């Protein structure tokens, strides 16, 4: 029982009012005030803000109980329970129109009155919770940047937020009750023909519907505006679909930005194509004199070897090596350029097989070298097989080069799983490097050794980095001078489902791939 609830009694018969006051106090209620007329009742409610008003319908004044009750409930938001000896249909219909919280016929017992009061207080509390939630929701929807329009199952607008007002050109007061199609005039962006209203379909199907692509909104007195988003049904578990809500936003700026990006991409592709053509033209023009330099220096060494002293021969050899290195550099740069642009063809790739294939090529190229290859079987990945072969080829050739002065040279390839990611590695026991220079290893043209020590162009590891980045992975290195180096890389698509055998296959440079 709401024993602390305060009540105002509105009754024009003093004896009845006094009896009612005593009965309420026995029940534990507090009587905040008494009034004998409708106008007085309204003033008392304003002054005391009671929890409930007990209102006699028949008041001997120009403002009767029903009229006073309508003001108290509608404007002051205080629940009203009517008390009356009349039960005729006309009186009941008038009372119902004011939406009272209760209706008690005289004479009544205490129990009947108490139940009516408690039910009225409970119902009013529930209504206030709903009202507050609705106000919070409305305030939230009015503050969001998205345009929001709600309508009932017949398509009549029941709510619009300021963003929707701005986009449609309609004020909420004007739009309420109007058919959605009057306010939200949608056009097909391609044909400029009116689009069909989706409310009927939403009500019948009970599921959201996105706006078609290239939808335009024709605001009142304005030009068509591109919009995006969707209709969604407003559903009740018992009554089904009650209406629909449309959330949308102006995408003019985004569309303009997309068009600018498309134009920039087209310009960029055109410039890249022109640059590629220019690069190949320059490369062709550079190769011709390099071939002449290399060819004539070879002729000089062959035909005039007896006439040249040792210093002359040395200078000619340097000329030949420089021209060959320049030609190799041009080739490497031409291969590097497309790495960042080529489309990825993702397929399952057995990196172990690729590693063995590259190892065999290296051994055939230098059969005089004795290098032990340790290649872990089952190192699979998801990626572009051609690009991954280029990356692995550069890493293994790098290891092959920097183990050339090591007796008992060893090159390993394998992988390990750590932190839910597969890490691949190429390890060697060659020259190694100082970790202080590790960050420079993958920069274009960066070299930690002279060409006399280890020939190269400084492009190989930069190529590796581009390939790995294209696959969403990263590459890094660890090393120690005189003890070797280890290059690690990851691939975004590297999965851990297939666990490779733990063993590492071993073969010397003079042997064969296991199983071949």
Task: Note down, in words, how this protein is organized.
This protein is of the alpha+beta class and 516 residues long. The protein has four domains: 6-140, Rossmann fold; 145-250, Beta-Lactamase (2-Layer Sandwich); 256-338, Helix Hairpins (Orthogonal Bundle); 343-508, Histidine kinase-like ATPase, C-terminal domain (Heat Shock Protein 90, 2-Layer Sandwich), CATH 3.30.565. 43% of the residues lie in helices and 22% in strands. It contains 14 helices and 20 strands. It has helices at 14-27, 38-48, 65-74, 89-97, 110-143, 162-168, 172-175, 180-183, 199-205, 252-303, 310-336, 351-365, 385-402, 460-470; strands at residues 6-10, 30-35, 52-56, 80-84, 102-105, 147-152, 157-160, 186-188, 209-210, 215-217, 225-236, 240-250, 347-350, 371-375, 380-383, 409-418, 421-428, 475-480, 484-490, 505-508. Strands 6, 7, 8, 9, 10, 11 and 12 form a seven-stranded antiparallel sheet that branches. Strand 4, helix 4 (89-97) and strand 5 form a beta-alpha-beta unit. Helix 2 runs parallel beside helix 3 (65-74) and helix 13 runs antiparallel to helix 14 (460-470).
Largest sheet: 7 strands, antiparallel
Shape descriptor: elongated
CATH architecture of the largest domain: 2-Layer Sandwich
| Residues in β-strands, percent | 15-25%
Structural class by helix and strand composition: alpha+beta
- CATH-defined superfamily of the largest domain: Histidine kinase-like ATPase, C-terminal domain
Put simply, the count of helices is 14
Oligomeric composition of the shown chains: single chain
CATH fold-level name of the largest domain = Heat Shock Protein 90
- Annotation, overall tally of beta strands: 20
């Amino acid at each position: 029982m709401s024993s602390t609830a305060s009540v105002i009694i509105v009754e024009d018969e003093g004896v009845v009012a006094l009896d009612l006051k005593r009965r309420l106090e026995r029940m534990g209620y507090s009587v905040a005030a008494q009034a004998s007329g409708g106008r007085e009742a309204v003033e008392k409610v304003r002054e005391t803000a009671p929890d409930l008003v007990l209102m006699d319908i028949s008041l001997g004044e120009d403002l009767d109980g029903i009229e006073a009750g309508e003001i108290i409930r509608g404007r002051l938001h205080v629940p009203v329970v009517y008390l009356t000896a009349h039960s005729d249909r006309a009186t009941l219909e008038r009372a119902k129109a004011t939406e009272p919280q209760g209706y008690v016929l005289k004479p009544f017992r205490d129990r009947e009155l108490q139940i009516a009061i408690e039910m009225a207080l409970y119902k009013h509390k529930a209504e206030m919770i709903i009202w507050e939630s609705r106000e919070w929701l409305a305030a939230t929807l009015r503050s969001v940047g998205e345009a929001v329009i709600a309508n009932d199952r017949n398509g009549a607008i029941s709510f619009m937020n300021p963003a929707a007002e701005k986009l449609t050109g309609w004020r909420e007061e004007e739009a309420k009750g109007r058919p959605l199609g009057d306010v939200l005039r949608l056009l097909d962006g391609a044909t400029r023909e009116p689009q069909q209203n989706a409310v009927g379909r939403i009500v019948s199907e009970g599921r959201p519907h996105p706006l078609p692509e290239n939808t335009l909104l024709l605001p009142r007195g304005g030009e068509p505006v591109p919009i995006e988003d969707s209709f969604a049904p407003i559903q009740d578990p018992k009554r089904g679909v009650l209406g629909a809500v449309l959330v949308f936003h102006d995408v003019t700026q985004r569309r303009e930005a997309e068009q600018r990006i498309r134009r920039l991409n087209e310009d960029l592709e055109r410039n890249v194509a022109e640059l590629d053509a220019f690069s190949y033209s320059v490369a062709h023009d550079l190769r011709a004199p390099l071939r002449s330099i290399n060819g004539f220096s070879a002729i000089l060494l062959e035909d005039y070897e007896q006439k040249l002293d040792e210093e002359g021969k040395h200078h000619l050899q340097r000329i030949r090596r420089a021209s060959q290195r320049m030609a190799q550099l041009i080739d490497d740069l031409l291969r590097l350029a497309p790495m960042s642009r080529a489309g990825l063809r993702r397929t399952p790739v057995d990196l172990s097989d690729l590693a063995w294939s590259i190892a065999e090529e290296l051994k055939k190229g230098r059969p005089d070298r004795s290098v032990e290859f340790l290649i872990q079987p089952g190192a699979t990945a998801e990626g572009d097989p051609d690009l991954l072969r280029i990356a692995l080829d550069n890493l293994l050739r790098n290891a092959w080069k920097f183990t050339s002065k090591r007796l008992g040279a060893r090159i390993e390839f394998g992988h390990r799983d750590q932190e839910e990611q597969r890490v691949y590695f190429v390890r060697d026991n060659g020259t190694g490097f100082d970790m202080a220079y590790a960050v420079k290893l993958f920069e274009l043209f960066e070299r930690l050794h002279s060409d006399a020590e280890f020939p190269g162009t400084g492009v190989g590891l930069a190529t590796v980095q581009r390939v790995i980045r294209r696959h969403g992975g990263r590459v890094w290195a660890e090393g120690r001078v005189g003890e070797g180096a280890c290059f690690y890389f990851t691939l975004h698509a590297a999965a851990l489902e297939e666990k490779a055998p733990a063993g590492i296959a071993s073969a010397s440079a003079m042997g064969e791939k296991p199983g071949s």
